[in-house]
Amino acid sequence: MQDIDVKSLETAFQDRIDQEIKIEPRDWMPEDYRKNLIRQISQHAHSEVVGMLPEKNWLTRAPTLKRKMALLAKIQDEGGHGLYLYSAAETLGVSREEMVRDLLSGKAKYASIFNYPALNWADMGVIGWLVDGAAIVNQVALQRTSYGPYSRAMIRICKEESFHQRQGYDICLQLARGSDEQKRMLQDAINRWWWPVLMMFGPHDSASAHSAQSMKWKIKRVSNDGLRQKFVDQTVPQLEFLKMTAPDPQLKWNEERGHYDFGEIDWDEFWNVVKGVGPCNKRRLAVRNKAHDDGAWVREAANAYAQKNN
Ligand code: 3HC
């Protein structure tokens, strides 16, 4: 294709983005836009599916039938979120098999947060409250992403995420109003999850490989640091209501800024976990691989049925 043609296509494409017109699967798009979306949406889908694992381990140990039912519903939702997002990624020309293969081989990334262990029931509350709370901050902004199928998936997912966060905070509230031992258990869980949750928003904007282009293409609507700050600002009052503290002596309200100041993330820990040497990386992939192998017969049966009846 002539350079002039490509240039005019790129200009028309950016005009659509600037006018907030959603990009749909059949529209012309720069190859790098498509690749960036496949990267982000597939990693998002992997995160949803791997994110089911820490909570799955506590299903059989939920303290009441009600807590078990809420946790089971949440885990099922996460699996569904993964499927919406894999489907959105497939509209860009990548196959489900390819994405799943990249996850199972360890090639693909998923959210670092899911490589930390869930040690007791308080972790179920803190994961729902803080991890899903952070995901909501990120995903509410992503409802306005420029790619149509991703935006629509986010709108659907955000409706379910608010239940996830509420059930988590309700667990925390019960523990915060419980015995001294329950209060200690909750505070310990907050201490272990606080910093890994702040890492969910990615590196600082200045260290982000994709942010500048993703913001220009309106794939990303708010920057990593902007989302992180929004999350801290909305979470601290909830922490105070629980009469709990964050493991950050620098966390304090800055009247001038109108935001909370907070300490620096341990970026060595972040990149170690992203690169695969976190506390649970190997275990998460082993469980995913076993589930995939154990489910082979279902895929074979479904494919055989589809071939016979097509
Ligand atoms: N965990 C793992 N990798 C991360 C990461 C994290 N927390 N934050 C950043 N990275 C990776 C990026 O993927 C990128 O690597 P790549 O080039 O190999 O893809 C690299 O670090 C540089 O980071 P950037 O900030 O430049 O990357 P992005 O512009 O993609 O921003 C992001 C990172 C903010 C996570 C963005 O990808 C995003 O918004 N993704 C969609 C939301 C998402 O995936 N959330 C994950 C949690 S889902 C969840 O919590 C489910 C809920 O139901 C519990």
Please state the structural category: mainly alpha
| Spans where pLDDT lies below 50 across 5 or more residues | none
Radius of gyration: 21 Å
Average predicted confidence as pLDDT: 97
Spatial gap, N to C terminus = 38 Å
| Number of contiguous helices | 13
How do the strands of the widest beta sheet line up side by side?
A: 1-2
- Spell out the helices and strands N to C: HHHHHHHHHHEEHHH
Structure summary, number of beta strands: 2
Strand count, sense and closure of the main sheet? Answer: 2 strands, antiparallel
Ligand inventory reads:
3-hydroxybutanoyl-coenzyme A
Strand content: under 5%
Q: Characterize the overall form.
A: globular
Helical fraction? 55-70%
In short:
The chain is 67% helix and 2% strand. The protein is mainly α and 310 residues long.
Q: How would you summarize the topology of this molecule?
A:
Blueprint: H1 3-18, H2 31-50, H3 52-56, H4 65-90, H5 96-104, H6 121-142, H7 148-176, H8 180-199, H9 211-216, H10 224-241, E1 252-254, E2 259-261, H11 267-274, H12 281-294, H13 296-309
Antiparallel strand pairs: 1-2
Helix pairs in contact: 2-4, 4-7, 6-7, 6-8, 6-10
Q: What does the model show?
A:
The longest helix has 29 residues. With 310 residues, the protein is mostly helical. It has a two-stranded antiparallel ribbon with strand order 1-2. The chain has 13 helices and two strands. The site of 3-hydroxybutanoyl-coenzyme A has 30 residues, from α2, α4, α6 and α9.
